[in-house]
Amino acid sequence: QVELVDSGGGLVQPGGSLRLSCVASGFTFRYYHMSWYRQAPGKERELVAVSRANGGSTNYAESVKGRFTISRDNVKNTVYLQMNSLKPEDTAVYYCRANHLFSSTNEYWGQGTQVTVSS
Questions:
Q1: What's the rounded Cα separation, in Å, for the pair 75 and 57?
Q2: Which among 12, 10, 30 has a CA at the least distance from the CA of 20?
Q3: What pLDDT score was predicted for residue 44?
Q4: Secondary structure class of 112 (helix, strand, coil)
Q5: Which pLDDT score, from 0 to 100, does residue 118 have?
Q6: Is pLDDT of 71 > 80?
Q7: Alpha helix (H) ranges present in the chain?
Q8: Which residue, 15, 19, 35, 38, is the most exposed by fewest CB within 10 angstroms?
Q9: C-alpha distances in Å from residue 28, one per residue of 25, 69, 74, 91
Q10: How far apart (Å, rounded) are the C-alpha atoms in residues 53 and 42?
């Protein structure tokens, strides 16, 4: 059974840090691009960061470049999102997504974890 379990969200003050984790099971992790998306209230879901399966190259949304870092551990089947210098506008539900290296329609989503940045 395929499962993506997101965790690590919470309430943090502006300027603070959080580390999100997404543990995968039920599929061959190393063959999947792993991404983090987020969705704020009243807004569409947006891509935050991606770690590719073939070599692990990464890309980031402009709004998080220099503050967020995505990483993956193909032994632990886990992808992380280290978030530093958090801003109120980073407040959203963060979702992990896995999509197959050769088929973008072969995808799985985590259940989401809430991140709230507020003083």
A1: 17
A2: 10
A3: 97
A4: coil
A5: 97
A6: yes
A7: none
A8: 15
A9: 8, 23, 9, 31
A10: 32
The Cα 14–Cα 49 span in angstroms is 20
Burial code of 91-106, b = ≥16 C-beta within 10 A, e = fewer?
A: bbbbbbbbbbeeeeee
pLDDT at residue 104 in the model: 76
Q: Any idea what DSSP says for residue 102?
A: T
Which ranges constitute the DSSP H helices of 26-104?
none
Counting Cα atoms < 13 Å in the Cβ hemisphere of 95 gives 16
**Residue 98, C-beta contacts closer than 8 angstroms, at least 6 positions apart:** 4, 24, 27, 29, 32, 33, 34, 35, 107, 108, 109
Amino acid identity of 20? L
β pairing state of 103-109 and 46-51? unpaired
For the record, the structure tokens of 81 come out as 């999102």
Q: Under a CB-based contact definition with an 8 Å cutoff, are residues 84 and 10 in contact?
A: no
